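Subject line: Sequence and fold of a protein, written as structure tokens
Area: Proteins and the way their chains fold up in space.
Start of record: The labelled sequence and token lines come straight after this line.
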Amino acid sequence: MTKEINDIFSKEDNSLYSNAMTFMRRPLVKNPLSESADVVILGVPLDMATSGRSGARMGPDAIRRASVNLSWESKKFPWNFKLFEHTQVIDAGDLVFDCGDAEDLTLRLEAAADQILASGKMLLSLGGDHFITLPLLRAYAKKHGEMALIHFDAHTDTYNNGSRYDHGTMFYHAPKEGLIDPKSSIQIGIRTEYKQQNHGFNVINALEANDLSVDQIVSQIKATVGDKPVYLTFDIDCLDPAFAPGTGTPVCGGISSDKALKIIRGLQGINLIGMDVVEVAPSYDQSEITALAAATIALELLYVWTANKLPQ
């Protein structure tokens, strides 16, 4: 018996695998300036600035595909509202730049962010290696002035011995350019060398983060950033490799995905103006658990940003 199907092209796609190409199945809009939206998702497929294993250029695609596993839930546990009823999100795909040209990438990313922010939208960027945060901060600073930084990472990225395009030097350059205020900024999960005498940033290192409660960590973060505009960057290697093996520079002793998500949820009320999730390298991933962690973190950040807009 032949089944009659009349709605084959109009049926809503809720499957896990069909047409899984945008973050959380949000509309794909190649020119984000042409559409009304609150938030633009932008992938930045870069790994020219890595110092360890390459492969982060495939991160945006992996995060998007993993996000499909989250899209069936109309409101994500434990949030009590439906995100996309309150925030309109579009996916602009990936930034296009001349392959192998770090300067072209830097200029194009800053210009793209400039235009998106000028249109009144917020930007959630998916890396790509962590260097992408520097041109993004340059664009955000034009609109918001000097910002506070909340930085989840295994590394401080304040090293001054790299090239101009290096994923370990962004937060050496950003304060010198007046983009962020180190005294109002905080790094969580650090477990590699940093010079406390001239480093300049507040730090909750991984040893402390694993022993402190979520409430204690959240209190320190909020006390540090105060009411300054906050840019939040999450390097997936902040998580222990047990939870995120798919990254270029994994370091044992990190925090769990559960603790990271609880900290992020606790950041409601800060003046969050921009964010990125970076350093997913799917070729080293196991069962897509790193990509899923990154997609979940990105989604939680959208919930925090949206919760800040809702009547309290």
Observations:
- The mean pLDDT is 90.
- The longest strand covers residues 272-278.
- The first helix runs from residue 59 to 67.
